[in-house]
Amino acid sequence: MKTASPPSLQRLLLAVLIAFVAIDAAIGYATKTTTFLADAVDIQTPATLYAKLDYFRELKGRRIAFVGDSVVYGRRMEEAGDANWRQHTIPAHVGQILHERFPQQPLSIMNLAMNGGLPADVEQVVRLLSPLKPDCIVADISLRAFSTDFSQESNRYSRPWLSTMVIDSSFNLRDDDTRRTWTSRTETTLQDFALSHWRLYRMRDFVQWRVFDGEPSGVIRRLRDRLDRRLGRPPAEADPLDDILLTIKAKNRYGAVTLTDDNPQIAALKRTLDGLASNAQCAVFFYATEEKGQLAELMDAQHYEKLQDALTAIFLPYQNRGIMFLPPLPAIGKEYYLDYGHLNDAGNAIVARNIVESGLSQSVPQLRREP
Questions:
Q1: Comparing C-alpha atoms, which of 364, 363, 270, 261 is closest to residue 320?
Q2: Closest Cα partner for 360 from 283, 287, 289, 288?
Q3: What is the chain's mean pLDDT, rounded?
Q4: Which fold has domain 38-367?
Q5: pTM of the predicted model, to two decimals?
Q6: 184 to each of 176, 178, 181, 298, how far by Cα in Å?
């Protein structure tokens, strides 16, 4: 059996290298000329966030970035049967409103929200996002996030890797976790180098979540469920105890809310506000309004109002420094809610109009309604 001669091997390696370069260039062109990376996905890895930030920094015209939790992310609508949920999120509605008002003005919206995102997570995302100088950052906020359930170091972040994720001035990615072993740090350094310079590798996680909607095991499970439906097999019945347990958990969480400075999530929020104000970065925070009927089961009305007053007071020192806070909306009906805190398409449209009218139109001169 003949083995490849050195010149043949060199030609083969050169051909492989050229193919990789061509594929990488094609991916780079495709991501810059399409809105694929603007699609909302569950950001679970540094690679996914890095890919979206890299796309965002190249955008032209007005750029608005949304950060926050599942209220902004919007996937709860898919769980409720909305197949087009990405077009029905709060950021998507804001983009639609602004495009209709300013059809000639280039404008881009980026949804960087995360399921289960906490103020500590938002602080880190804003740290990574601010150097890109978006025209405005929009974030949701809720009392739930300030429960003492999230005050321990072990559960302070929904994405622990955010606290050590660094993007340098050349927009290269690195992990500054000094607690890793030498072997682990070497592996991470090589991985970060590949993510910084190899688009194909950088896109892997994003494509996995956007195209396959998660891990391969999840794809197989969904295919199995789809096959069961086609075969006419009845779906598994939901356990009625699940809703009861969820309500109890939510009630305990709301009962443990504290807005004092010793709460790490409050400290993270204040550091975020200080950083935004110091950088003269436009920011709009809106409260994720709960459904009134279900809220009454979770928290005493007077205590809720006191907490709302305390939350508003946190934002007062920043109101003349480019940061706006939009309090709960009083008139969102029960029919717009999927559960106590998540809205459907029409409900998100109501919130989006408020963000544009009361927030962005006031904060970004170029987005004010023309007379």
A1: 363
A2: 283
A3: 88
A4: Rossmann fold (3.40.50)
A5: 0.88
A6: 12, 10, 5, 44
